[in-house]
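Researcher: Re-running this chain for the archive, since the previous output was lost when a drive failed. Same request as before.
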Amino acid sequence: MTRLPAMTTSIGAPRYTSTAIALHWLIAALIVCGFTLGLSMVDLPLSRQKLQWYAWHKSIGLTVFLLSCARLAWRGWHPPPPPPPMPDWQRRGAAISHAMLYVLLLVIPISGWLYSSATGVQVVYLGLVPLPDLVPKDKGLATVLRACHVTLNFTLLMLVCVHAAAALKHHVIDRDTVLWRMFPAARPRRPSKG
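Model: Regenerated structure tokens:
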């Protein structure tokens, strides 16, 4: 399999591909929307609006799942650029936190689908594609799955905050290129053929 060479930023640092950058920021925006919607809809009284918000929340979650699968597939053919010099503990921490983020981006939507199935409410993706129930309706199981879904989401929130703080630390304190590698405004420059 032929792998493409890494692109560089306008300042010469290796960067992610435009596709990886677009997927990263699209997934990030959807996570913010889905999390905000999830917090907002819980306390609403039962109404048409609440049911619509639940449907949107589920579709956002499944879209995050699909885009995360696409991002992982893309990464298989377009490996990330090498990190700038940093201590081994930081490199290991980054690898572990990225792996945990990917796991959560795949597991959280499935946990929500399981929870919805256990409540007896079918998931209809984008209001068009009815998905099969993964478990039978069961009130006790629904309670457990809801707690699991909420816990996983708050774990994701914590990891996203750590991820953002680490990127800002690299940018502001270390003054390296970690943030620029994933920043859309960093103009790409193709590697020279020399």
